[in-house]
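Supplementary notes (optional reading)

For those who missed the lab, this is the record we used. Protein: Beta-carotene isomerase D27, chloroplastic. Length: 261 residues.
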Amino acid sequence: MVVLSLQVVRFPTPQQLPLRRQINCNIIRCGIAEPSGEPAPVGQKTKYDDGFFEKAFMTLFARKMEKFAAPLTSKTENKKKGWFHYDYESFVDVSKRVMQGKSRMQQQEVVREVLLSMLPPGAPAQFRKLFPPTKWAAEFNAALTVPFFHWLVGPSEVVEVEINGEKQRSGVHIKKCRYLENSGCVGMCVNMCKIPTQDFFTNEFGLPLTMMPNFEDMSCEMVYGQVPPPFEEDPVSSQPCFADICSMSNPSSPVCPKLEA
């Protein structure tokens, strides 16, 4: 297998992205926009019409994550839900309970275990054989991301990026991340989505992936073929809380407490 060393040239460095470290103070709790196929503007919550397959994915992931989540407080709430009794809100609630009492690394390890449990034995090795880190593999996985992850992150589109001096359509622009919008939590975005997803594709599948959330408009850029930076050099490592919308926020802290080791 030929392993290519890929390096992004065009994307800005963390030093060129000072705005990503700021909180958009205009993001507030408000009404839910009517479904239109596009995410609602910042300040409004997008409404989704989830169908059978979307709810099936929500239920599958939520039930897998329940094994690692803190128990609910009341006996009524703690009663095990049946299939298709989960919606997106309850899926996000499970994610929040997974975070309780766990370090940043422990939270990320839970997501890794959940993702591995979804796959048949030997799947990562087979993925490496089928999709070595080439331009074609990066573009193919970007194309798959748009339909298969719509239930999780909302509307997205494939975009052109430049990697190692070559243009390719291996970028995915998430218009307004559903997970971030519904959780309102920087720590959940980073620990339960961005970092474990990057690590899973890069280390388990052997296909580098970098995710760059924009905490001003809740969009996100995914770049297949780009090696992610170390956490300490990533702009998200110094991101403060969404003080106005996150139930777990600490407004007095300059950095989201969930991002601390």
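If you only remember one thing from this example: The first helix runs from residue 52 to 66.
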